[in-house]
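# nightly structure sweep
# worker-07 picked up a monomer target from the shared queue
# config: single-sequence mode, recycle default, output format = structure tokens
# input follows
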Amino acid sequence: MKIAEKLPQLFSEVEVIGYPRGGTSVCVTKGVVSRVDAQMYAHASAKGIEGWCYNNPGKLLIVQVDAAINAGNSGGPALDSQGKVVGVASSGMGGSAQNIGYIIPCSLVLNMFDEFTRTGAWGGIPEPGIKFRTLECEALRNYLKMPEDATGVQLLSVAPQGALASHAEQGDVLLSIDGENISNEGTVLLKLACGQEVQVPFEHIITGKRQGETTSVAIWRPQEGPKSEVSVSFRPIDPLVQRFDVPQTFFVFGGLVFTPFTTPLMQEYFAKDSAVSLPSAVMEKAMLAWREQQEEVIVLLRVLKHKVNEGVRSSSMRILESVNGEKVGTMQELVRAAMSSVQSKKEFVCFGFLKYGREPGGIEIVEVLKSGEILEANEEILDEHAVPTAVSSDLSAIYEEFEDL
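# output follows
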């Protein structure tokens, strides 16, 4: 099959081929291109990623068609009237929506193929690493003293590990990207086949590139005069809260079960009733922060009851901040800090939880276990609950450093 070089024009015919439910033979549905847009893809939304989350990978180009796309169509080709592939069937909108299906443009599919061919793996899409607000408000633009002919969006936050971290800061205004002016609504002009043009969110220029490609960005800093032009290479950003296909990681210590907070974990608690609640403050603090270094959001998932942990509150999930007053940022650090406390024969092991999630300067709530009773109690707890080991396999090497205790 030949691949179309450009995005299809609006109202052009498209055929979607696949094996959806309702039969066993190949199925072909036909329709027209209804819209070209940039959105967060259905897979991310279905897995619990929201647009307001800081671990949102960004908006990508997408083509809306009115050809039927049902379960089983995903991955099948979409062809134009010349038989060229214009994209890959992705998803359909259910509920009260009618005739709304989406295909992923070929340009994005080719990006993935190119990287996989070169490296043997797919690392993900380049991510903007910013949160911003639009500038439709004339009063706000005047307050910022923007030049009369300038348009753009104002940055609310910049990812410390993102491509713009060393070039932009909160309050700056993004004016253009790759020479395309960003409107006050956060869109740029996109040219389709046959000279058609549409306005789409500017992030698609970033997410639609291959890793390593450079992007030119014009930035204006309020009160400081002329704009600056920078060239950067956007790349995937490790999220503070992991997104998909996350291996199970845990540490049981005195019946306290610790694990990283992840998007699948959050989704699980929303999907079914649980004996442990997920406070909104915890979720917001976990989901509204960038990853600054090698760190995780470690939560006390539950408490396996035993006299050693009597009185430790177990009704709601809490974010762990410290062990014996020392901040812990990863599960590896947690295991080493907790086991070292036992090894050094400290009288107590103190776990610090911030009352308001990850808020700096918040009131720290401390839960305390007697160090000398923990390991014996842990064996009893594991036996009672048929848990074969106190740590997941990825933490076993660290845990075994203390096997002589």
